Amino acid sequence: MTILEAMQNRHSVRSYKGIPLRPDAAAALQQEIERCNREGGLHMQLVAGEPKAFDSLMAHYGKFSGVQNYIALIGKKSADLEEKLGYYGERLALFAQTLGLNTCWVALTFGKGAAKNRCTIAPGEKLVCVLALGKGTTQGIAHKSKPLEKLCQVEGSMPDWFRKGMEAAQLAPTAMNQQKFLLSLQGSTVSAKSLGGFYTKVDLGIVKYHFEVGAGKENFSWKN
Description:
Blueprint: H1 3-9, H2 23-40, E1 45-47, H3 57-61, E2 69-76, H4 81-98, E3 102-106, H5 112-117, E4 125-134, E5 152-154, H6 160-170, E6 181-186, E7 189-194, H7 200-215, E8 221-222
Parallel strand pairs: 5-6, 7-8
Antiparallel strand pairs: 1-2, 2-4, 3-4, 6-7
Helix pairs in contact: 1-4, 2-4, 4-7, 6-7
């Protein structure tokens, strides 16, 4: 399964079978987490066989069940931390999908204290959110998306590579399915803007990863 295929197949899953990760899948995930941490200067961590973070009142309110594993999204506090965790967290979510695993982004409805107890968080670092992980009882369902034209602005005709990037961005998970982002094209430069709302900095990182995969990084540059 390619990453583009994983984007098509991956949907948020809240109910899991409560079985351990396969050793080969856990090892592959750990390697990819380490690669992302090196590239992004992050401290994301795989937590396996730990049900307490999803055995809280908030987790039950979020309708989670059977969650035994998750990836804790951690990094040094900075202005761009949430966006970086969104970018690399989604890379991990899609990688997990290629391994036959399901995921769900979780920002509020998990036991943060229990998760912190199983993680190593250095001074100056922050646990922002987690990715629930495992074999889902279902594959989830696709979210509705806004029309492509409402999510982007283009000067002149839309290049094929930009359209492919936008089609991938439409598949990106966002908090409460808000899709509060706008991608704009000027020449070969793309700017990504958050339109406000809950966790939209994380959302922007997720969207940027999707767009890069769809458009091809060789076709454009991000506006600083």
